Amino acid sequence: MLPVVEPTAQAQPAASTPLKSQEHAGRVAPEPPKEILGNTVDEHWRNTCGAVPTRSSLTKGGLPFGFIVSPFAAPDDSNRWLRKAAERCQSCGAVRNLYIAVESNTGRWACNFCGAINKSEDLKGRDAIESCRELRDAVIEYVEPTVGSISTQVKRKVTMLVIDTAMRQKDLDELQDSLLKALSVLDKNEEIGFITFDAVVKVYDLSKQECATAFILPGTRSPSQYDLNMLGNTGAVFAAPLHACFNTISSIIRSLKTPVRDGKRVRARSRCVGPAVEAAVAIVASLHGNSFHANADDGISPQGGKGHVSLVLGGPPTIGPGSEDFEVEASTEAAGMSPSEQQATEYFGKVGHRTRLLGISTDVLVVSMLSIGVQKLQAMTMTCGGEVVNHLHFGEAFESDLVNGMYRTGGRTSGVVDIHASACVEVLRIIGPLIDPATRQEEEMAEDLPNLAISPSVEGRSSYTVIYSLKEDVHDQYIYFQVVTAHSTHNDERVLRTSTMRIPVTDNTANLLHAVDVAASAVVLAKEAVAEVKDGSSSLEDVKAQLNQRVQTIAQTWSDQVKVTIGGRMSTFPAQLQGLPKYLFFAQNGPLLGSILNSEDDANVLRRIFLKSNLEDSLRILSPQLFSCTLNEQNVLQFEELPVEDTSLLPDRIVFMDHHTQVFVWSGSQVSGVEFEPVRQTLLSNIKGRRWHPDRSRQGSPAEKVRSHGQRFLLAVASEASYRNVIKKKTRKS
User: Fewer CB within 10 A of the terminal residue: the chain, N end or C end?
Assistant: First the structure.
């Protein structure tokens, strides 16, 4: 037998694990040793339920079984790293962890996932086992030792600004002010390039300080290799450090004008988005010695962080690759995605794929009240690790998103996520900012690790939601999960992070229900529904009906009480889960699945943010927080959280609602005068500084938009009784 080595945090020692070995068949099992001290908690991991049932059928009883994990949330800290290669099970590929069974005299250990026997020389002897950190802590970070010194040279990263000039002159004037403000706060060593587009693509030479000089590329087709060679042979400078080209870029920005001859409506103006993005990516790639047209499909995994493209868009693509036929689109809008939109989506998906292979990310900042078809642009940004962010106008939020997009990953790139689970567990779905392996190297890795996926962007606030069920009844005391991630740091060190969790198995229904995390369960259910809408596998009506059915199934499966009504016998909802229907009501009637957002673009952007957000951010989107604000005797703002159902605008208070991407502020009738303007300004300052909630002190993306209206949202998420109450109070106040 191999004695189990587990943490001392447990009250009783773990049982020994028998192994079928002829060599040890006749031996008497030794007494289990005392457990080694250890930290079994991962603060970035949240289970929907702290236990699982012994019967597999109960995992299909409506309750979601899964977890939400944010493996990149902790900043890189070299003091925590183990500078050695991770030891893996030779059978299933899981990393050696604190829950394995170890035979101290031989160094053999049994994998807690598949039961296979492995051998490690560094586990021979009790002292060696007790000094092994992998056998004490649930979270371990490895860095493979490098030959020679670690590179401290800062990698060259180029940011290309790609600006749509086919907008109203008034909007273009506001854009100029916002761009200049954003550039003024950037690191002066940041390397910047500048491209504009309307009917053609204009690539600016930053070495010409006396006047704005640009080279023209056609907007009706993708740039050819000949076009790119011509640009390279001009001797022009297409990217330069900001301290060297700030004055040149500033003069270029001030000189921007809308096309004189394009008198069409803003939506229909000539706008060659695809060729402009391709040109920007090709220029960044050429600065790193790569060709945009090189065949990289069969190559190794791309090294990210080489460049970033920030696309500012004021309308939909209308000419060139990726454009749509709006006359056909209008006639087929009711039937769903038009053929031209399908072609545009496929085109932008291919651009995003090639962009990722070149190690470049692309953000799209849409500033328009028009519908531009965000979904096709998301096909590009999701693949290469970028984002699409919607704005109604230029201003502080736009400037913040433009700057934050350049530093969003903190220099971390090339993310990989892998999930391991016990043999009795079936991983049904992984939701998050992930894509399938694409290169030969990634596909070879996926052959051995079936749950492996690629994370194009390595962001601290990104999370991955894992949903699972049981294949068969469980007879063990625990089931195990392990999340293994890898990413590259700013100086090209490869960090592998492992987090191993075990969940107890119980046959007691009451204990199981008490172990349910209602908030995490609600977020997982909502993410599952939103993901089905986002990928087009189900309609809004279908997922709403499915959520209603889940509530009924939970009541029928888990309730031990029956209520007799006129319509017949009805299972009551378990008291331990009373908050769950409220969350699901918000999901169905809020902006995720409801009709609050008139624009499908806004809904698509919010759904994308929700699917990739961690638990705290997801809860704010799903069930917004409502706060009241008053001044105490020391003129200090006091915040009090209110239930969302209480939508009263208290006459002596300022009320604001935190919806993660937007913050709505209202003033009561007794605090709406000019004398209270300093109070409101102080409140706005607190909101912008995220000083009303501990979790809001961290920088978010996208930046919150502060607005003074949102009654429609409150009325939509309120219950019918609250709705009538709000109407009465609004009528009485007016």
Answer: C
Are 278 and 223 in contact, with CB atoms under 8 Å apart?
yes
How far apart are alpha carbons 49 and 215 in whole angstroms? 59
CA 360 to chain centre: 18
Q: What is the pLDDT of residue 370?
A: 82
| CB neighbourhood size of 694 (10 A) | 9
CATH number for domain 519-609, candidates 1.50.10.20, 1.20.120.730, 2.20.25.10, 1.10.10.10: 1.20.120.730
Q: What is the pLDDT averaged over residues 225-238?
A: 90
Quote the Cα angle for 541-547-553, to 5°: 135
pLDDT(581) > 50: yes
pLDDT in tens, 513-570: 999 999 999 999 999 999 999 988 889 999 999 999 999 899 888 887 766 666 666 6
Q: Are 442 and 396 in contact (CB under 8 A)?
A: no
Q: Please name the residue ranges forming H helices in 480-579.
A: 509-514, 518-534, 540-558
Residues contacting 38, CB < 8 A, separation 6+ = 6, 7, 8, 9, 98, 135, 136, 137, 138
What is the CATH code for 624-733?
Answer: 3.40.20
Q: How confident is the model at residue 65, as a pLDDT?
A: 97
Report the distance separating Cα 118 and Cα 91, nearest Å: 9
- Can the peptide bond before residue 702 be classed as cis, meaning omega within 30 degrees of 0? yes
Residue 241 main-chain phi, psi, to 5 deg: -60, 145
Sign of CA dihedral 340, 341, 346, 349: positive
Q: Are 99 and 496 in contact (CB under 8 A)?
A: no
- The pLDDT of residue 35 is 53
pLDDT of residue 98: 93
Measured between alpha carbons, how far is 571 from 552 in angstroms, rounded to an integer? 8
Residue 631 near residue 667, CB atoms below 8 Å:
no
Task: Find, among 356, 392, 386, the residue nearest to 372 by Cα.
Answer: 392
| CA distances for 521 relative to 46, 202, 466, 516, 618, angstroms | 10, 50, 12, 8, 12
Taking residues 406-420, report their average pLDDT. Answer: 87
pLDDT digits (tens, 9 = 90+) for 434-449: 998 887 888 888 887 8
- Confidence check: pLDDT of 275 > 70: yes
Cβ within 8 Å of residue 508, ≥6 positions away = none
Nearest to 291 by CA among 358, 352, 237: 358
Q: From 3.30.1120.10, 3.40.50.1170, 3.40.640.10, 3.40.50.410, which CATH number describes the 158-407 domain?
A: 3.40.50.410
pLDDT in the model for residue 564: 61
More confident residue, 497 or 451: 497
Q: Structure tokens of 621?
A: 């989107």
In this predicted model, what pLDDT tens digit does every residue of 384-393 receive, in sequence order?
A: 999 999 998 9
The CATH number of domain 22-146+412-516 is 2.60.40.1670: yes
| pLDDT confidence tier of residue 489, bands split at 50, 70 and 90 | confident
For 80-125, give the secondary structure using H, E and C. HEECCCCCECCCCCCECCCCCEEECCCCEEECCCCCCEEECHHHCC
Residue 82 contacts by C-beta under 8 Å, 6 or more apart in sequence?
A: 133, 134, 140, 141, 142, 143
In angstroms, rounded to a whole number, what is the distance separating the alpha carbons of residues 31 and 233? 77
Under the banding of pLDDT at 50, 70 and 90, the label for residue 311 is very high
Which H/E stretch holds residue 313?
strand 307-313
Residues 590-599 have a mean pLDDT of 77
Would you say residue 364 has pLDDT above 70? yes
Predicted TM-score (pTM) of the model is: 0.87
How far is residue 201's CA from residue 39's CA, in Å, rounded to a whole number? 56
Angle at 33 between CA 27 and CA 38, to 5 degrees: 140
